[in-house]
Amino acid sequence: MATLNTKFKLNTGAEIPAIGFGTWQDAHAQEDAVTEALKAGYRHIDTARIYGTEPAVGAAIKKSGIPRDQLFITTKLWNHSHHPDDVEAALDASLKDLDTDYLDLYLMHWPSPFARGSAMMPKENGKMKVGETDYVDTYKAMEKALKSGKTKAIGISNFSRAEVERLLKETSVVPAAHQMELHPYLQQKEFIQFHNEKGIHVTQYSPFGNQNEIYSSGKDIGKLIEDPTILEIAKKYNKNGAQTVLAWGIAHGRTVIPKSKTPSRIQSNLEGDFQLEPADLKTLDGLDKKLRFNDPSGSFGWNFYADLDGKK
Q1: Is 72 helix (H, G, I), strand (E, B) or coil?
Q2: The whole model's pTM is what?
Q3: 86, 143, 150, 282: least surrounded by Cβ within 10 Å?
Q4: Which residue, 220, 206, 160, 187, is CA-closest to 289?
Q5: Which residues does residue 46 pair with via DSSP β-bridges, in sequence order?
């Protein structure tokens, strides 16, 4: 199988495999999908409390017999557990479902808090009940979890630049990673440069852009992975559009977390770890449309990405 098995170094010194397996959506199909991914050679699995897929990921890992130290497991703290007193219990629940003693990376899924309690999407009169916890306090509780050894690294997801800057100023551990929507149609070059300067690794979610049916804002334009420019470059390497956009992310030093439940695609996505020539990389860098497909500001009661590209 043609894959370079690229790894990147986090600011903790740990290595993270460039291609991770995403497990958002299709909870019922995830145990088989993760089993397939591990068999194909993935060693980086990305999940989250809200996905409801942690038990499936845990079961697939156990079944695989792959030693824990050969895997990189990321999960995420959900918004209803932002209160400092709730963070460790949320982490423990994730560890239990994943059937592991520690995480390689624990992310705050969003900077926005929901009301405390057992409801993951707490609503009142059809509107989200927001919480009062400041994400800085949530992160400080995550720093304690880091000291306990229950996670080897902590990070963030879906933060704006101002939110990251404030976090860096008011906390003591620089996030090891920031997971965000990133693909050739949303390149956020200045924001990425800022992360590089701060030593924060970037992970691209939705690396295929509007391939996901859930993104209504991407329905009226052609699919990113069918972009003629991308397909032309892909042909040169005997690759497909999906593999080529993964290679683009990796060439820029970022991890990518494609998801699929189809065995052939699971395999083929892993082969997106190949080297693009500088001229082709430059062409792909020219495709930025500042198009953001994921923005739940309205339903979450928080103005996300206020100072970033693609904000409508």
Answers
A1: strand
A2: 0.97
A3: 282
A4: 187
A5: 22, 74
- Mind spelling out the 3-state secondary structure of 145-182? HHHHCCECCEEEECCCHHHHHHHHHHCCCCCCEEEEEC
* pLDDT tens column, 96-150: 999 999 999 999 999 999 999 999 999 999 999 999 999 999 999 999 999 999 9
> Cα dist. 200→155, 233, 255 in Å?
9, 30, 12
DSSP string, 189-238: HHHHHHHHHHT-EEEEESTTGGGSTT-GGGTTS--GGG-HHHHHHHHHTT
Active site (catalytic) residues = 51
Cβ burial 200-235 (10 Å sphere, 16+ → b, else e): bbbbbbbbbbbbeeebeebeeeeebbebeebeebbe
In the predicted model, what is the mean pLDDT of residues 278-283?
Answer: 98
Report which residue type is found at 256.
Answer: V
The alpha-helical segments, DSSP class H, found in the chain are: 30-40, 54-64, 84-98, 135-148, 161-170, 189-198, 228-236, 241-251, 263-270, 278-285, 297-300
Please tell me the predicted confidence (pLDDT) of residue 218: 63
Residue 312: per-residue pLDDT: 86
- The partner residues of 52 in beta bridges, in order of sequence, read none
Angle between helices 161-170 and 135-148 (to 10 degrees): 60
- CA dist 42 and 311 (Å) reads 33
Mean pLDDT of 29-45: 96
Q: Pairing state of beta strands 7-9 and 201-205?
A: unpaired
